[in-house]
Amino acid sequence: MKILKMLLSTIFLITLIACTDKINDDDIKSIIDEPLVGYIYDDNTSRYINEDNGIWYIRENEKNIIPKEEFVEKNSIINSENFIIENRENSVWELSEIQEVIVEVKDTFYSLADESYSKHYRMDKDWYYEQVKKLNNLDDIDIIQWHEPFKLPIYIDSKE
């Protein structure tokens, strides 16, 4: 809610400045560079840092960028086109277990892999598909055998 209020006040200020016909780049920059609620700007690191939890972001191409090194809970921010949450590095994923399912007539490689992939927050999807292909010794993902076991890797984030 705080982010929404800040966004609305920013839009209001931009509209107000535009209506005065005295708009200049410095006015826009000062409005855009206002930190999100709960964040302060650190001159030493050129980052916006959350005062409570230390998570930080930077401004790049008029977007708020949260780097992949920072962990962000899925529901702790409002979905916005101005936020980009990057995938974690592939090297942080540690194989936890291998689940087996029996392939049914309606199943495809993607339907099976996507269901398992959805349990992995901030994982690179293409990398996950490659792991599934290797685990099942598949050269062609269009050829999976019905009524046969299909292995799905389950990973944990080794950095957490």
TrEMBL record:
<protein>
    <recommendedName>
        <fullName>LysM domain-containing protein</fullName>
    </recommendedName>
</protein>
